[in-house]
């Protein structure tokens, strides 16, 4: 798949799934602008990729929980390149597991700003430019936005909202020939997953549990996530308003679901 002469924005692009998107789109010939809060990680990735293909990437430091910074990033991209062809809204966070009793209302508001409001803002500011080139938007949701997850009410709520928002925006933008889709990963092996493994009492068992949640017996890779996004952007031209699972079959079949007798992670 090729995506040459296309300008792609990836939020949260310095590591994890965002990094996978940056690498895959750059390999496909796109000019990739990516943002993150961690400047040192972003600059390192930018330098690595540009050493292979000068000018392939441009890192912009941006905290997407600040909508003014999102607008400034979009404006900078248009000022430099004159267009936006694809927006990948990937930035977000999964808080540690807690019961609803342990989440404060402010916790929920903060996560809504980071995971959901940031996507609304990025779409709003990018769409005038995407409409000019019949571009596309890919929002990073999650499998748990559909099937849910224990002790993650705030995170699941934000991801379910991303999926619903994607479908609604796809309807509105169809008349402008702008496609809007989302990707719902299951377990993708990222630095966040590794941190959870390292922090567990039994790292080997934790990794095995993560792998075995999929029918395929392994977690996905960040490159596989990037390749799905590239397919949606470059090839899936009759696809809009679709939630694309990247789950290895994690949502299929029965499992040990009863949680009777459990009082939550802190009880």
Output the keywords.
267 residues; alpha/beta; Rossmann fold; 13% strand; globular
CATH superfamily membership: NAD(P)-binding Rossmann-like Domain
Q: What's the average pLDDT?
A: 96
Quickly give the CATH architecture.
3-Layer(aba) Sandwich
The helix-and-strand class reads alpha/beta
Shape: globular
Described by strand count, sense and barrel closure, the largest sheet is: 7 strands, parallel
Q: Kindly estimate the percentage of residues that lie in beta strands according to DSSP.
A: 5-15%
SSE arrangement, N to C: EHEHEHEHEHHEHHHE
> What is the total number of structural domains?
1
Strand order of the largest sheet: 3-2-1-4-5-6-7
Indicate the radius of gyration in whole angstroms: 18 Å
> What is the CATH T-level topology?
Rossmann fold
The level-1 CATH class: Alpha Beta
How is this fold's topology laid out?
Elements: E1 7-11, H1 16-27, E2 31-36, H2 39-52, E3 57-61, H3 67-81, E4 86-89, H4 105-133, E5 136-140, H5 144-147, H6 153-173, E6 179-185, H7 191-199, H8 203-212, H9 222-234, E7 243-246
Parallel strand pairs: 1-2, 1-4, 2-3, 4-5, 5-6, 6-7
Helix pairs in contact: 1-9, 3-4, 4-6, 7-8
């Amino acid at each position: 798949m090729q995506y040459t002469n296309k300008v792609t924005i990836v939020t949260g692009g310095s590591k994890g799934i965002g990094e996978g998107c940056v690498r895959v789109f750059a390999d496909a010939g796109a000019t990739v602008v990516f943002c993150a809060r961690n400047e040192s990680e972003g600059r390192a990735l930018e330098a690595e990729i540009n050493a292979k293909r000068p000018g392939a990437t441009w890192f912009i430091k941006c905290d997407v929980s600040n909508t003014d910074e999102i607008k400034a990033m979009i404006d900078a991209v248009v000022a430099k390149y004159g267009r936006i062809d694809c927006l990948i809204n990937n930035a977000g966070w999964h808080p540690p597991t807690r019961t609803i009793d342990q989440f404060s209302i402010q916790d929920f508001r903060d996560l809504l700003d980071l995971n959901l409001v940031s996507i609304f803002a990025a779409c709003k500011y990018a769409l005038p430019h995407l409409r000019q080139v019949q571009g596309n938007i890919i929002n990073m949701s999650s499998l748990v936005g559909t099937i849910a997850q224990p002790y993650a009410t705030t995170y699941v709520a934000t991801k379910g909202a991303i999926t619903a928002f994607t479908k609604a925006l796809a309807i509105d933008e169809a008349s402008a020939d702008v496609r809007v889709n989302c990707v719902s990963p299951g377990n993708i092996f990222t630095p966040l997953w590794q941190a959870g493994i390292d922090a567990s009492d039994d790292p080997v068992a934790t990794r095995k549990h993560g792998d075995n949640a999929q029918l395929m017996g392994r977690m996905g890779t960040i490159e596989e996530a990037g390749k799905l996004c590239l397919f949606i952007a470059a090839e899936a031209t009759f696809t809009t308003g679709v939630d694309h699972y990247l789950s290895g079959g994690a949502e299929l079949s029965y499992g040990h679901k009863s949680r009777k007798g459990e009082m939550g992670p802190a009880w």
